[in-house]
Amino acid sequence: MGVELTALHWMYLLFIVLIIGFMVARKDTSFVCIIGIFLLGMVATHSLSTAVSVVFNSFIYAITELLPTILVISVIVAMSKILTATGINDMMVSPFAKLIRTPGGAYWTIGLLMMVISWFFWPSPAVAIMGAVLLPVAIRAGLPALGVAVAMNLFGHGIALSSDFVIQGAPKLTADAANLPVSQVVAASVPLVLVMGIVTTVTAFILLRRDMKNGKLRSPLNENVTAAKAEQPPSLLSKKAKIAFAFMILFLFALNVVAMSYLHLQGGDATALVGGTSIFILILIALFAHKQNSFEEITNYFIEGFQFGFKIFGAVIPIAAFFYLGDTGFAKIIGEYLPNSSHGIVNDLGVALAHLVPLNKGISAVTLTIVGAITGLDGSGFSGISLAGSIAHLFSTAIGTGAATLTALGQISAIWVGGGTLVPWALIPAAAICGVDPFELARRNLVPVTIGLVVTTVVAMFLI
Asked: By the number of CB atoms within 10 A of the CB, which of 127, 310, 312, 392 ranks highest?
């Protein structure tokens, strides 16, 4: 076969199967990953103390690799907190309310605005920014609260989160697992994101209009509106100051986009630019809004941001730690215990698979979509994309092409299912802000997302 498979290879493969099985059963996979890391360390070193240390060291390695992503998300969430507290978010969104005159206008305006805001601020903060201001306007225009939730979900937790072009947290995870540059995965994801986004949102809109026309879905003017109206805090800034800061923020992020294009910034460099800009925006607004208490409040906003960031990635770290062992992380975490001819566990398995299984582009694409969807069943979306990237690496090695496309396909599938469009417990933020049942929202999204995944998988077959 040209590659030597050892007990380490078979054990790694066994735990991949176990992880998928646990995800299908909707069980948390952190415990399985930790046991897998321990047993790999034990089999490699034959030392109990070393194997125990390997578990901790793998966490350090994973955190080190993920730290830029965790940091930028935490900083952006911290910034979104002060935008909400000062009312600047209202000023940024309210001009778009003038565009909302019809149910269709409400759906597309809220959706597209949600997508853009989510690229820069992350979907969860964007839901709060959008829902509080535009939900009442959309309902007055005739779009039911469920339709608003669908638009926010599909455009925010679907298109924006699965593409993640600006912050690049998702591409970072999948690219690392697939041993590819982040820029390559982002580039490969563009056509797939377009296809998935267009097919899913158009299908959802057609179904919404059909059910509204036949009376299955109504838009009562006075119901659910109060769900979006949280108690307003005392005003910290004047109206003129809010308008000024709103324009300043838009201008600064527009400059970020120009700089990324002109200076060819991608991956970590692009993330650092967005993160640094967010930090200075937070500090500047805090100085004007909180005045003599600004020093303490700046710290409080950062604390809230970091609490959010580590809460989201707490479940990701053990899983990422396991999958980093499939590539160059093995030698760095455990040591040089693989055969001399080895190019990493996943690479070795890919070469072996090429000789054993008649893989082709179609089978690979379908498998990645299914694996991605299965990994999304835990409701995180992020916890399984390392697995998707790892399997994409394995399959692309076997068929000799398509690494970036397969990685992007697995990422899109995992996040659309688990990031907040199908799994009910991942829908709670949007459902809560719109005052709708998360299970009803999941059922409403099921058909459009399924159709989108099927079409996107077919397109991916031709792109591999």
From this structure: 392
